[in-house]
Amino acid sequence: MTDLIVRPLSDTDAFLAAYRALFPRCEGAGIFQSPPWMELWIESVPAEINLWTVEARRDGETVLLGVFGARARRPFAVLAPKCARLFEFDLPHYDAVYTEYNDFLVAADAPSEIREHALLAAAEQLGPLDELVIRNARETLVSAGRRLAQAQGRKIRILRTQPTFTVNLSSVRAAGGDYLATRSAAFRRQIRRSAALYEARGALSLRLAAGAAERERAWSALTRLHKRARTARGAGGAFGNEAFSSFHRKFCERFPENAHLMELRAGDDVIAVLYNLIFEGRAYSYQSGFAPEADNRLKPGLLAHCMAIDFYAERGAQTYDLLAGDAPYKRRLADESETLTSFSIDLANGAVSRARSFIRSARTALQSLGMRRT
Question: Which end of the chain is less congested by CB atoms within 10 angstroms, N or C?
């Protein structure tokens, strides 16, 4: 017999203890579901957000855990939907931390329909809600959402789909530990030319920051180079978001074994910094900063990734994960892997749902005309 329990998250220590106990029984869970990530994410909850846990127990044993974030309906915002989001806060500033491979934490021996039942329990007991929103979900959870929507006569909206890109490091080791040997001849020439041009400035070296002082230096270089590169492209940098920056700075300090800061130098000059998340044989390329170059033959980003791939292959890691987003550099470096889907399940009544759909359509039309909503 399986029981579903939905309740406010009031005892953080007890929840995290249950989460840590369940985690080893789960297959395929990665850094974004890991106990270190979950610990810091819950610690970061904004004051205006309520967290609710969903737990499934079979014969008294926990087989599923999840946390939904929801905020109280804003005054006078009658048509603003009240959402609950899986492992998010429903506050864009805070949700920039950006969970990927999103899913409930599920034991390998849990019933196949457990995710569907967990979503139904959340829909029925977190209310009154207008929608459940889940970003960057794995296919097993998307399928559960579709089945629930169909069974309940609800509308499911696909908000976004994104491929992920990964490098199989076993294939790199099979090629003698030379990642470039696994890529096209044109790509090899481009990277080797870039390396030769940088070596004219000084020896190339990729170094993993070790110790508090080195990590602090690498963090400063990361944020500086990231901002410079993004500003050069007319965009703001991720580290200008205080919630994002604070979360990752704490993550690096508290869990250094799960957070690598790697500096690529040409002589004494730092030309790239990679911030990689590390968990159970997988290196996730989460954020980076590169020195802008006027000469387009110089490719600090591609060069840094190539050297990092060899670094992790040599140390026995299984996967170098460039995460979600269909960017040209990812297609050059890696192979397409899983697809992550963001979706919502409409829980509002018909009239309210149609009104909100009209507002969403109007906003989209205005944005397509280049108008900014205030």
Answer: C
Q: Report d(CA 223, CA 238) in Å as an integer.
A: 9
pTM: 0.89
The 10s digit of each residue's pLDDT in 24-51 is 999 999 999 999 999 999 999 999 999 9
Residue 38: both structure tokens together: 């979950």
Distance from the Cα of residue 176 to its chain's centroid: 31
Q: Is residue 136 part of a domain?
A: yes
Cα distance between residue 341 and residue 160, in whole Å: 6
Please tell me whether residues 29 and 97 are part of one structural domain: yes
Q: 64 lies in which domain range?
A: 2-154+347-368
Between strands 83-86 and 131-137, the pairing is parallel
d(CA 87, CA 103): 9
H helix or E strand, kind and range, residue 15: helix 12-22
- Which residue bears the tokens 């205006």? 48
CB atoms < 10 A from the CB of 220, how many?
Answer: 12
**Is 9 within the bounds of a domain?**
yes
